[in-house]
Specification:
heterodimer, A: 312 residues, alpha/beta, six-stranded mixed beta sheet, four-stranded antiparallel beta sheet, 11 helices, 13 strands, B: 270 residues, mainly alpha
């Protein structure tokens, strides 16, 4: 059995040459990727195909071609997968005449949980809705509705959580709380696939990303590693050292260094090859007896990577 | 599905789960259907449709002996106003409301992303719509009978139609629940069916009685009343009607369940 086959059978979610089309419109175009335990950000502009990918992963939409698998099996037309899977849709509509407790208990019953009340209480406590658990949902703010949806999704402790724009409507404190909650679940081995078009949100929780542009997978992996692969775009690295001028002079000898700026804070180096610069820095510091206090890439943000992929 | 175990270092074990309880899930599904169905418009519609034959009965009773034979009056009104109008329209309102609303606002996702078998979701919804249609239609039948026949049940016409509306309510509820799952315009399609197919075509062409839920319903009433007349005698046999109704109910559960494998939600996103 090849490594790739083993990966497909064991990965929480795998897409293999998956395409979806509606008539003449191609929503998802030949996507192959895997989502492992941990948090993976699903990035793309509106209409890129993020929601379609989440629907495919939940088995609510069969692929037009290719194969989607959850833990090695197709999720299509198999309600039993929801023992391990939860989907949090983007739309905030909920049965407004119910209270969050009634709604989460309804979900717990439909999921076959033994202790419906206990599970619902724990889920509502997790999202800090326990104090308003008996109020009707139709009077809830957008943020409270988001938390109700999350409680309904997490009530059975799923191993795969699919979230479509989950931070919409949350205030900064609630957003931070939800991020910590998802991080805790990810640390416990849950695969969290999280779509958003707000890069800062993804950057804060997910190192692994899937970037979807016009239905195609534009990039996948650790976004910092992706940045380093962008060899046609110079990197800027900030360095604080004991002898900045001496270090700058040594670095300027290299063809890969495009420019060096020195100010009171330190040195800003523009380079075409981050790895070569890293090696050179160590060598220059060693030969010159210079102490390096800080080496920090300054343009490794997700926004930078995303902008590059979109422009390409 | 082989799912690796959760790390117990960082999170509590998932809550214990097992096979669903059919009774508990049916209660939840009916509760959700009740919550989604009873908008003021649906409530007013059901009350209006139930009261309509009673208004006719009040006029009939007010005219006393000038009104004629109460059995003839009841058979005609039960046929035209209950079997032909109230029962199908109440079934249309309660059969389509929940699934249509849930499809339109996306909350159907919360039902289909559970381990409850999808055929059971449909079966529970059909049961809910059947019981509600049957009960409201039966109230219309009882009320009309009590007013027009002064509390008696001549020739068992009221009790026969009570049975018939429960039978017809279940059949119509299945038909319209299926409609809500297969079309985005269930209410309009259902109205066309009731007003064009049932009220016009099948009443005009006797061959179409075999494809009319209204005539299946009348065949049940005909079996249990001593009254007779063209309305009661022209339909298909009771055996055919019951068999056709069972086929329709099973088709709804099977086809509806499969439709929920690919739920028609307007959009999961905004």
């Amino acid at each position: 059995m090849t490594h790739e086959m083993t990966r497909v059978m064991t990965a929480p979610i795998s897409f293999e040459h998956v395409s979806v089309w509606y008539g003449d419109v191609v929503a998802v175009n030949d996507i192959t990727c895997h989502v492992d335990a941990g948090i993976t950000g699903l990035l793309g502009p509106n209409g890129a195909g993020k929601t379609t990918l989440l629907q495919l992963a939940a088995g609510l939409l069969p692929p037009s071609s290719g194969r989607v698998q959850l833990f090695g099996e197709s999720p299509v037309a198999r309600p039993e997968i929801f023992r391990h899977v939860a989907l949090v849709p983007e739309r905030e509509a909920l049965p407004g005449m119910l209270t969050p407790r009634e709604f989460v208990e309804a979900r717990a019953t439909l999921l076959g949980l033994r202790d419906v009340r206990g599970a619902a209480r724990a889920a509502l406590e997790q999202v800090e809705l326990d104090t308003v658990a008996t109020r009707r949902i139709d009077g809830f703010s957008k943020g409270m509705r988001q938390r109700t949806k999350l409680a309904a999704a997490l009530v059975h402790g799923p191993r795969v959580v699919l979230l479509d724009e989950p931070f919409n409507g949350l205030d900064p404190r609630q957003r931070l709380h939800m991020m910590r909650l998802l991080e805790a679940r990810a640390a416990a081995g849950t695969a969290v696939l999280l779509s958003s078009h707000i890069l800062e949100e993804i950057e804060e929780v997910a190192a692994q990303i899937l970037v979807v542009l016009a239905g195609r997978l534009a990039a996948s992996g650790d976004y910092r590693a992706l940045r380093r692969l962008m060899s046609d775009r110079p990197h800027t690295v900030f360095v604080r050292a004991s002898a900045p001028r001496q270090l700058a002079a040594a670095l300027m000898q290299s063809d890969t260094v495009l420019g060096v700026e020195i100010d009171e804070a330190g040195i800003r180096i523009r380079t075409t090859d981050f790895s070569a610069l890293s090696r050179m820095l160590v060598r220059a510091a060693h030969h010159g007896g210079i102490t390096l206090h800080e080496v920090q890439p300054t343009d490794e943000s997700l926004e930078h990577v995303f902008a590059y992929l979109v422009e390409r | 599905m082989t799912v690796p175990p959760t790390s117990h270092m960082t999170a509590a074990s998932p809550p214990a789960s097992g096979p669903i309880s059919y009774a508990a899930t049916a209660r939840v599904l009916m509760r959700l259907a009740w919550a989604r169905t009873f908008t003021p418009m649906v409530l007013l519609g059901c009350i209006g449709l139930a009261l309509l034959p009673m208004v006719f009965a009040l006029v009939f009773a007010a005219r006393g002996s000038l009104s004629g034979d109460p059995v003839e009056f009841l058979v005609m009104r039960y046929d035209q106003l209950v079997a032909g109008l109230a029962t199908p329209l109440i079934a249309l309102l309660v059969g389509t409301s929940a699934f249509s609303a849930e499809s339109d606002d996306g909350t159907l996702v919360y039902l289909v992303t559970t381990t409850t078998p999808r055929w059971w979701i449909v079966a529970s919804r059909v049961t809910f719509a059947s019981l509600l249609t049957g009960c409201v239609s039966a109230l219309a039948v009882w009320g009309t009978g009590a007013i027009a026949a002064n509390g008696s049940d001549p020739e068992h016409v009221t009790s026969a139609f009570t049975l018939a509306v429960f039978f017809g309510g279940a059949t119509y509820a299945a038909l319209f629940t299926l409609l809500a799952l297969v079309t985005r315009r269930a209410l309009v399609t259902g109205l066309v069916y009731v007003l064009f197919w049932e009220a016009t075509l099948s009443s005009t062409f006797p061959a179409l009685h075999y494809l009319s839920v209204r005539y299946w319903m009348l065949s049940v009433a005909a079996r249990f009343t001593d009254a007779s007349g063209a309305t009661l005698d022209d339909g298909p046999s009771l055996g055919f009607s019951v068999a056709a109704s069972i086929v329709l109910l099973l088709a709804t559960v099977v086809i509806g369940g499969r439709r929920l494998d690919r739920p028609r939600v307007t959009r999961l996103g905004t």
